[in-house]
Specification:
Blueprint lengths: L1 H35 L2 H39 L6 H47 L5 H19 L13 H20 L4 E5 L11 E5 L1
Antiparallel strand pairs: 1-2
């Protein structure tokens, strides 16, 4: 009976220790979730998304202004300002701009989603560590540190890299117009005099003057 009683006591002790361990895990897990589920974090991510979007919108607006200036100059040099080609090319410019708006919105959403994914990965790591004895105080400190590091790391990828390609067709138009103007200029004769050397059969007498145009 004594042995039986001792076995029961050992089992009770094991059960109590396991209960305490599970309570500690639950406490640490709750602390981690509290840190990551703080409403201020959601606000920070929304602000981050807005900042990414605005940064790229500003750049898109700058590039559109430059593309519009180049297009106006090119059409004017070609004598097409205000004509059907002007209307067509400005329609293309607007389409490029609208594509840019869509790309920027998607990019900003993706960057915010990537930041949330990093937070969730950090949350999962800390909850896993809770299973091996991480206490709630340390977990809270590490959670806050992870949130800060994730946000700082996200700041390094806020520029849409291929944004400059949106108005590439405008550059091609300008180049084509410049080539066309150059070719046209080469065909236009200019009045000038050229001193032509005397024919080989002649001797002395100096050169003759040939006039072009």
């Amino acid at each position: 009976m004594c042995l039986g009683g001792g076995g029961s006591s050992a089992a009770d002790d094991a059960a109590r220790r396991e209960q305490e361990r599970q309570a500690k895990i639950a406490e640490t897990t709750a602390a981690v979730n509290t840190a990551f589920d703080d409403p201020s974090r959601a606000l920070s991510i929304d602000q981050f998304r807005s900042a990414v979007e605005q940064q790229n919108l500003d750049e898109l607006a700058r590039q559109r202004q430059e593309a519009d200036r180049q297009l106006t100059f090119s059409l004017a040099r070609g004598g097409q300002g205000g004509g059907s080609q002007d209307v067509f090319q400005r329609g293309q410019l607007l389409q490029d701009f609208n594509r840019g708006l869509a790309k920027i919105s998607t990019f900003a959403n993706d960057r915010a989603a990537a930041l949330r994914a990093q937070d969730e990965q950090a949350r999962g790591n800390l909850i896993r560590d809770a299973q091996t004895g991480l206490d709630s105080q340390t977990a809270t400190q590490q959670a806050l540190k992870s949130l800060q590091v994730n946000l700082e790391g996200a700041q390094g990828g806020t520029q849409l890299q291929n944004l400059g390609d949106l108005f590439a067709n405008i550059a091609r138009i300008n180049n084509a117009a410049a080539i066309q103007r150059g070719a046209a200029g080469a065909r236009i004769p200019t009045r000038q005099t050229i001193l032509a050397p005397p024919p080989p059969s002649q001797s002395g007498g100096g050169g003759t003057v040939a006039r072009i145009g």
